């Protein structure tokens, strides 16, 4: 925008526009808040914008209402509003929300403005105080937004954060510009820097609030995705997404020619735990099994609930020997960690079958079948043990015998 165009703009019209934009945005936030409920900081953002809008309304009536309202209270409300927006961002990130801080900042701002209006009438100092406090809160908002997060949340959060940072820097630079003599006392009420500040405020309002709404949208998407992918009881992947993610992982490891191992884990005599302690304890034991298992997994490993008390693990990059060692550690830690309920201590063990791509290839169903057969061996050989899958064709008859033995022991409950 050229200096001529800027000179054609008048501050009052721009400030009225900013007030109307803030009002529209507050209404929009109310509507969004209605849909998403009180969570996600939305209530703070709506209240914050409402306070900023009331402050602007008072401010544009300068000359028609007393300065105690149009300057002192107006700036107090704007400070409070931006502070409350900052609280909303902390609420969104599940951080503590020191509610005293915006109120304290607003009170101090009002006291100082009152002093520099009614005791010592000094416009540049008032200008510096309001710029520094409002700019400070914008920078605090930027600090909450420009944090490492995963895509696509990062796009929305950093978008808002960069806007808050840019606008915060403009605001705190204003007193410096005055000190440097770029903005004389006459310019404070309508000079180019003041016009740019108000234009910037309109853009920042629209940009930041659009970013907030996107942030809520991405968070809801994340939650929906987690709901559709996770087993609601244990938090492990559900069977459908286990299969999808396993097939992708198998494809990738085949292309990179890495080994990958599938482990099937099954709780021993789980029916007995349900019968003896009740289904609720049974459910808690399943969660405990998953927690214990996770302790031995890396972030890239997959853990899914295949059904009932049966879980599948996929360990990329591990051959059968290393994966069997992981399986053994899981078995050991579960059998060592008795599960204390409020009434009893439940001892639980697991059996595990291990099948590696080295012998069984990269097809999910084939690996699963091989690990399942190894699991049957582990059950047939007395449970609470790890068995490696036989190479294909090695021991078909032996497997049939072990399946029968496993069924027999299961029926006898030994
Ligand atoms: N509490 C609880 N129980 C479940 C859940 N899913 C399956 N089960 C129970 O898990 C038990 C599985 O029993 P079985 O298949 O006979 O196996 P098991 O008793 O563990 O015996 P082995 O596997 O042979 O050691 C059944 O009693 C199911 O009702 C669940 O989500 N919660």
Automatic annotation (TrEMBL):
<dbReference type="GO" id="GO:0043709">
    <property type="term" value="P:cell adhesion involved in single-species biofilm formation"/>
</dbReference>
<feature type="domain" description="GGDEF">
    <location>
        <begin position="258"/>
        <end position="391"/>
    </location>
</feature>
<protein>
    <recommendedName>
        <fullName>diguanylate cyclase</fullName>
        <ecNumber>2.7.7.65</ecNumber>
    </recommendedName>
</protein>
<dbReference type="InterPro" id="IPR050469">
    <property type="entry name" value="Diguanylate_Cyclase"/>
</dbReference>
<feature type="transmembrane region" description="Helical">
    <location>
        <begin position="101"/>
        <end position="120"/>
    </location>
</feature>
<feature type="transmembrane region" description="Helical">
    <location>
        <begin position="156"/>
        <end position="173"/>
    </location>
</feature>
<feature type="transmembrane region" description="Helical">
    <location>
        <begin position="193"/>
        <end position="216"/>
    </location>
</feature>
<dbReference type="GO" id="GO:0052621">
    <property type="term" value="F:diguanylate cyclase activity"/>
</dbReference>
<dbReference type="GO" id="GO:0005886">
    <property type="term" value="C:plasma membrane"/>
</dbReference>
<dbReference type="InterPro" id="IPR043128">
    <property type="entry name" value="Rev_trsase/Diguanyl_cyclase"/>
</dbReference>
<keyword id="KW-1133">Transmembrane helix</keyword>
<dbReference type="InterPro" id="IPR029787">
    <property type="entry name" value="Nucleotide_cyclase"/>
</dbReference>
<dbReference type="GO" id="GO:1902201">
    <property type="term" value="P:negative regulation of bacterial-type flagellum-dependent cell motility"/>
</dbReference>
<feature type="transmembrane region" description="Helical">
    <location>
        <begin position="126"/>
        <end position="147"/>
    </location>
</feature>
<feature type="transmembrane region" description="Helical">
    <location>
        <begin position="44"/>
        <end position="62"/>
    </location>
</feature>
<feature type="transmembrane region" description="Helical">
    <location>
        <begin position="68"/>
        <end position="89"/>
    </location>
</feature>
<dbReference type="InterPro" id="IPR000160">
    <property type="entry name" value="GGDEF_dom"/>
</dbReference>
<keyword id="KW-0472">Membrane</keyword>
<dbReference type="Pfam" id="PF00990">
    <property type="entry name" value="GGDEF"/>
</dbReference>
<feature type="transmembrane region" description="Helical">
    <location>
        <begin position="14"/>
        <end position="32"/>
    </location>
</feature>
<keyword id="KW-0812">Transmembrane</keyword>
């Amino acid at each position: 925008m050229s200096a001529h165009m800027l000179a054609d703009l008048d501050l009052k019209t721009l400030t009225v526009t900013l007030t109307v934009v803030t009002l529209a945005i507050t209404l929009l936030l109310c509507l969004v808040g209605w849909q998403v409920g009180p969570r996600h900081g939305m209530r703070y953002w709506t209240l914050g914008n409402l306070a900023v809008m009331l402050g602007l309304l008072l401010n544009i009536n300068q000359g028609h209402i007393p300065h105690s309202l149009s300057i002192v209270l107006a700036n107090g409300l704007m400070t409070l509003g931006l502070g409350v927006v900052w609280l909303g961002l902390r609420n969104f990130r599940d951080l503590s929300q020191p509610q005293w801080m915006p109120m304290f900042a607003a009170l101090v701002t009002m006291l100082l403005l009152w002093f520099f209006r009614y005791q010592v009438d000094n416009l540049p100092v008032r200008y510096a105080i309001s710029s520094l406090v409002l700019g400070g809160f914008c920078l605090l908002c930027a600090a909450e937004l420009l944090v490492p997060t995963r895509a696509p949340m990062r796009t929305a959060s950093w978008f808002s954060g960069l806007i808050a940072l840019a606008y915060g820097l403009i605001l705190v630079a204003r007193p410096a510009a005055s000190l440097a003599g770029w903005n004389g006392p006459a310019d404070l009420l309508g000079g180019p820097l003041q016009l740019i500040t108000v234009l910037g405020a309109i853009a920042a309002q629209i940009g930041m609030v659009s970013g907030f709404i996107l942030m809520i949208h991405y968070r809801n998407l994340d939650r929906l995705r987690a709901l559709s992918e996770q087993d609601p009881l244990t938090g492990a992947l559900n069977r459908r997404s286990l299969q999808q993610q396993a097939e992708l992982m198998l494809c990738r490891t085949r292309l990179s020619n890495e080994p990958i191992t599938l482990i099937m884990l099954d709780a021993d005599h789980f029916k007995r735990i349900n019968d003896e302690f009740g289904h609720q304890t049974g459910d808690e034991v399943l969660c405990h099994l998953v927690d214990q298992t996770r302790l031995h997994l890396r972030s890239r490993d997959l853990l899914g609930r295949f059904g009932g008390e049966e879980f599948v693990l996929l360990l990329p990059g591990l051959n059968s020997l290393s994966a069997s060692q992981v399986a053994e550690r899981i078995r050991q830690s579960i059998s060592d960690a008795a599960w204390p309920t409020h009434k009893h201590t439940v001892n639980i063990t697991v059996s595990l079958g291990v099948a590696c791509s080295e012998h069984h290839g990269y097809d999910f169903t084939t690996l699963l079948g091989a690990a399942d057969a190894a699991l049957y061996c582990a059950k047939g050989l007395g449970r609470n043990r790890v068995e490696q899958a036989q190479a294909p064709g090695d021991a078909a008859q032996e497997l049939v015998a072990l399946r029968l033995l496993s069924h027999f022991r299961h029926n006898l409950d030994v």
